[in-house]
Amino acid sequence: MSAQHPSRRSILKTAGGFTAAMAMGGAGVLAAASTASAVGDIPGLHITERGEQDPRMWYYRFQTSAIGGWTPAVNVLLPDGYHTSGRRYPVLYLLHGGLEDFITFDRFHDIRGLTAWKDLIVVMPDGGRAGWYSNPVSSNIGARNWEYFHIGQLIPWVDANFRTYAEYDGRAVSGFSMGGFGALKYAAKYYGHFASVSAHSGPANLRGGNGDLVTHWANASSAAVELNGGSIYGVPFWDQARVSADNPCERIESYRNKRVFLVAGTSPEDIQGYANETLVLATQREFKWNLDRAGIPYEQHEVGGGHYVRRDLLQDDINGIIDRLRKA
C-alpha cells in the first residue's frame, strides 16, 4: 500500500499512544479547559472537561448516564468565521471506525483542511472501540448505550449549545467502517434526523455476506474489546427484531428523499481479524440492489484498495453534504 494510503493496522498502532495521552491528559493537542463558555449541560449529560481556545476545534468530555465507568468525548469543528458571523449552520455527524475514537478524523484525515472555509459544523463523537453505534443486549462492563448517547443526548446538546439548524435538512451523518454502518443505521432508524447519509467502507447489510457475517462480526468484536464478553445482538441466539431494526437492507424505504453516498474498496484487506473489505463490498452491493428495486437514487464508488478512508472521496462527500443541506 502506498505511503498516502497507510494500512488501518499501522494507523491504529500510531493512534494508540496518542489516544492514551489524550485519556490521561485531557484535550492533548487541543486547548486547555476554558472556564468561560456558554456551552452547558442537558439532563443526563454533564461536561467534565472542555477545551475551547482553538478558534475552530472545540473539545468536550462528558459524564453520561448512557456510558458507565468512562467519560466519552467529542470534537466539535466550527466553521471559519463562526464566532463573528451570527449565522446558523448545518451539521455533519462524522462517526469513527472500530478501535478508533473521536480524535481520528482530526489526527489522521485532515478534517480541518477538508472543511476550511466551508459553512459546516462537524461533530465527531466517541462511539466505543467496538460499540457499533448500538445499545447492546448485554454488557459486563457497565452501560455502553452508544445509540442513546448520540441520538438522545448528544444531538440535543449540540442543537442547544451551537447555532445549528435543528431539523431534517440541517443534519447529515457519515462514517468509516463501523461508523459507516452506524451512519446508515441512524439515518434509517431516525428518519427525521438526517437528510444525507454516507458510508465509507461501511457494511450495509447485517444479514448479508453468505451467512450473516456482519452480525457475527459485530457480536464478536464487541464482546472482545467493548463489552467484556457482552453482546450487541445476543448470544447464542440473536434478538432478531433488534437485528431487523438496525439493518439498512431491511429499512430501504427510510432512505427515500435522502442523499445516499457509498464507498467500498475492491481489495480483501483484513479488518480487525473478523472480516475483510470484500465482505463490506458485498453488503454494499446488496444494499444498492435493494435501493435500485425501490427506485431510490444513490452515489456509489467501488475503488481499488482495501479498508481505509480515501481523502478525495471524503472531500467529495463533504461537498455533496453541503450542497444537500440547508445553507448557512
UniProtKB/TrEMBL annotation:
Pfam families: Esterase. Gene3D superfamilies: alpha/beta hydrolase (3.40.50.1820). Its EC number is 2.3.1.122, 2.3.1.20. SUPFAM superfamilies: alpha/beta-Hydrolases. Coiled coil: none annotated. Keywords: Acyltransferase, Signal, Transferase. The keyword Acyltransferase applies. It catalyses: 2 alpha,alpha'-trehalose 6-mycolate = alpha,alpha'-trehalose 6,6'-bismycolate + alpha,alpha-trehalose; an acyl-CoA + a 1,2-diacyl-sn-glycerol = a triacyl-sn-glycerol + CoA. Transmembrane segments: none annotated. Residues 1-38 form the signal peptide. It comes from the Bacteria. Belongs to the mycobacterial A85 antigen family. This is Acyl-CoA:diacylglycerol acyltransferase. It comes from Streptomyces polychromogenes.
